[in-house]
């Protein structure tokens, strides 16, 4: 398949240690709030970042985002079931 559908309001899990001191670490769960994407010449959407509501976040507020909301940048990971 190679694709992961993203839906606003869905639960998401962090799969990398982005900011250990602030609690953005592998295994933490949050809620998807926003998706930023580009659109290619064929009209396909490609996610480049998203914002999640992360109740475990202990860092400072990010500019223009509500409390406990953090920006997550595009990354890839191999997932097997």
TrEMBL record:
Domain DNA helicase Pif1-like 2B positions: 4-32
- List the Pfam families: Pif1_2B_dom (PF21530)
Domain of life from the UniProt record: Eukaryota
Stored InterPro entries:
Pif1-like_2B_dom
Protein name, UniProt field: DNA helicase Pif1-like 2B domain-containing protein
């Amino acid at each position: 398949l190679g694709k992961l559908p993203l839906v606003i309001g869905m639960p998401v899990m962090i799969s990398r240690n982005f900011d250990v001191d602030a609690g953005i670490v592998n295994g933490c769960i949050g809620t998807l709030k926003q998706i930023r994407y580009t659109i290619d010449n064929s009209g396909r959407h490609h996610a480049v970042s998203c914002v999640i509501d992360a109740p475990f976040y202990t860092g400072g507020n990010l500019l223009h985002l509500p409390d406990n909301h953090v920006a997550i940048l595009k990354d890839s990971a191999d997932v097997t079931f």
